[in-house]
Amino acid sequence: MKNIEKYIRNVKDFPKPGIIFKDITPLLADPEAMKMTLEELLKMVPKDVDKVIGIEARGFFFGTLLAEHLNAGFVPVRKPNKLPYQVHSETYDLEYGTDSLEMHIDAIKPGEKVLIHDDVLATGGTAEAVAKLVEKSGGKVVMLNFLIELEFLKGRDKLKNYKISSLLKY
Length: 170
Ligand code: AMP
Hints:
This protein is an alpha/beta fold. It has one domain (47-169): Rossmann fold. It contains five helices and nine strands, in the order E-E-H-H-E-H-E-E-E-E-H-E-H-E. The strands form three sheets. A five-stranded parallel beta sheet has the order 4-3-7-8-9, with helices on both faces. Strands 1-2 form a two-stranded antiparallel sheet. Strands 5-6 form a two-stranded antiparallel sheet. Strand 8, helix 5 and strand 9 (164-169) form a beta-alpha-beta unit. The protein is globular, with a radius of gyration of 15 Å. The protein binds adenosine monophosphate (AMP). Residues 19-22, 55, 58, 118-127, 155 line the site of adenosine monophosphate (AMP).
């Protein structure tokens, strides 16, 4: 049994001083570690899901794999002006300023059960914005799932209304 944690590289001061970036590219580069990670993620998410959302860009990797294994559709949530069709948009606060995320208006149908996936849960602002996008479309968020949770940033406090699962906690 491989230790998944050892495939996460800590990169100091990226993208700015004081941040320790959790780099998942060594994990993506190792087929056995990828397979094991996917198996572990599948154990912690609901089986009855209509759509899996991956958040740009690192949420796309395991998001698509999860969707395929859950027999669900995959929906990308993207940064502004990347999606070609009409979008719902949600703006959220960053440490300095704001950012937005977009999703096609017809990506989630009313009543659909939606699993949201991303690589890292930090302050929770990103995941909260995506949950709001799902709700704008009439979908139900059944779980927020992450590879990595930075517990000291207390992202769960922002996401009290949702079920959350994460594979690696720091
Ligand atoms: P937040 O909205 O603060 O929860 O930030 C989550 C988003 O930022 C995710 O899409 C992550 O990919 C990215 N992120 C935040 N902190 C880190 C980190 N230390 N290492 C890698 N990605 C991060």
